[in-house]
Amino acid sequence: MYFSRFNIFSKIRDSENYFIVNLLSGNADILSPEEARGVMEGRFPNRAAFVERGYLADRECEDRDYRLKYLDFLDRRDSSEIQIFFVTTYACNFACSYCYQSAYDVEQYRLTNEIIDAFFQYVDTGFADRRKYITLFGGEPLLPDVQSKQLIKYLVDQAKGRGIDVAVVTNGYHLEEYLPVMKQGNIREIQVTLDGTQQVHDSRRALRDGEGTFDRIVAGIDRALHMGFTVNLRVVLDAENIDELPSLALFAAKRGWTGNPRFKTQLGRNYELHTCQADSNKLFSRIAFYEKLYDLLQRYPEVGEFHQPAYSLSRFLFENGELPEPLFDSCPACKTEWAFDYTGRIYSCTATVGKLDECLGTFFPEVTRNRVLISAWQDRDITSIPECRVCSLQLTCGGGCGSVAKNRTGVILSPDCRPEKELMEMGISLYFEKGLFDVREDNIHQCCTV
C-alpha cells in the first residue's frame, strides 16, 4: 500500500483542519489537525478507513481503476452534447477596452442564406448522431441593420426546423428588438455582459462613438426575463472593476433578477488571449482572482447571493454530497465544441475562431478538413500530456485550456495548469466551514472526518 498519487491533501484556508480528496476513489474528508499530522508523518491510525476510501492504495489495483475510469470518461464524452458556435460576423458596435478580437481582420463579404444553408448541411451530416445545440457568437451577432435581422431569423428558423436549440452570446445593446425573433425559435439561453453598475460598465463597454450602453442592456435583460427567456449574465472582472461586484450584485437583486429562476450568472476573469491586454497590470492570475473573490464573499453577502463560484470541485461537493467524476480532459476543442464562421471556415473552439492560422478546414464553398490538426486537438487529454501524467491534480484540472497552453508553449500537448489545490483550500472553507451558503446537511457526509 502507498499514499495514492491522486490524493490532494492540504490545509483548509483560515482553519486548523485539513482536507483530503481523491477523485479516482471518489472520496473527500476533512481531517483534524492530529489526523493531518499523522498523514504528514506517514502514520495512519485509521489505516483501514484510509484503505477503504482509497487514500492508501495498491498501485496495480489503482492503475486498473484509472484505466476503467478513463474508458468510462471517453464513453460519456463521446455521447455528450456538442456545442456548435457559429460566428455571424466579427464586426461589433462596441469598443470594449479588453476585446481580444480587436486585431482580427474583418473580411469584407457578409453572411448569406447560402452560407447558412451550407453550415446546416455540414451540421446535419457531420454531427448527425450527436445531441447538439448552436450558439450564435461574434463579434456581435445582434446588429441593428435589416439584413442582419433577416439572417438571424433565417438561422433561428433553420435550427428550429431541425429541433436544435440555439443560445445567443450578445453584448445586449440591441437585444430588446431581437426578442420577437428569438421567441419564434428554440432559445436555450441568452448570455449578456455587464461589467458593473452604470459608470463602471460604460467606461469599459461603450459604443464605438463612446456612448454608454448600460441602460439599453438593462432594458433588454428586463424584457427578456419578462418574456420567459433564460438570461446568463456574465461579468468580466479585473483589478479595474472587481470591487464593483457588490454594487452590481445589489443592483441585480433590486431589479428582481436574482430572484428569477431563469436568471443565471457567471464571472469571467479578464486575461491575456491573443492580441488583447497590452497593459497587463490590471489582470489577475487565476489564484489572485479567486483570493480576491474569497475576500469579497465574506465581506459582502450579496455577492454570494448573486453568484456562488465553483472553487474547483468545492461547490459540486457541497451541492451534491459527492465528488464529480474524474476529469481526464477539460479542453472541449474538436470533441464537444466546434466553431464555424461566416467566411466558411472551421475552428476548434471559441478561443481559436477567427485566427486564420488556427483554421481546421472549411464548410463553404467546399468541405475540407485538416485531419492532422483535428486529430491533434482530439488526442489532447491528461493521458497524452507528459506533465499531467505525473501530477496529483490531473483528475480535477484535466489539463486546462488547450488554446492557452498552445499560445504559451507552441504545443497543443502541453498543460494549462490550474491552481486546483489552492482553490479547494478556499472553497472547502467557504462551503463547509464558514457557512456562507445554505447548509445542506444531507450532503456533508461525503466530506467528514475519517
List the helices and strands and how they pair.
Elements: E1 2-3, E2 7-11, E3 18-22, E4 27-31, H1 33-40, H2 47-52, E5 56-57, H3 59-79, E6 82-87, H4 113-126, E7 132-137, H5 146-161, E8 165-170, H6 175-183, E9 187-193, H7 198-204, H8 214-226, E10 231-237, H9 245-254, E11 263-269, H10 286-299, H11 301-306, H12 314-320, E12 337-341, E13 345-347, E14 361-362, E15 368-369, H13 371-378, H14 386-389, H15 394-397, H16 402-409, H17 420-433, E16 447-448
Helix pairs in contact: 4-5, 6-8, 10-17
Describe this structure in words.
- It is a single chain.
- The chain has 450 residues and is an alpha/beta fold.
- The protein folds into two domains: 2-75 and 422-448, no CATH class; 81-309, Aldolase class I (TIM Barrel), CATH 3.20.20.
- It is 38% helix and 16% strand.
- It contains 17 helices and 16 strands.
- The chain has helices at 33-40, 47-52, 59-79, 113-126, 146-161, 175-183, 198-204, 214-226, 245-254, 286-299, 301-306, 314-320, 371-378, 386-389, 394-397, 402-409, 420-433; strands at residues 2-3, 7-11, 18-22, 27-31, 56-57, 82-87, 132-137, 165-170, 187-193, 231-237, 263-269, 337-341, 345-347, 361-362, 368-369, 447-448.
- The strands form three sheets. Strands 11-10-9-8-7-6-12-13-14-15 form a ten-stranded mixed sheet, with helices on one face. A four-stranded mixed sheet has the order 2-3-4-16.
- Helix 9 links the parallel strand 10 (231-237) and strand 11 (263-269).
- Helix 4 runs parallel beside helix 5 (146-161).
- The radius of gyration is 23 Å and the shape is globular.
- Residues 274-278 and 440-450 have low confidence and may be disordered.
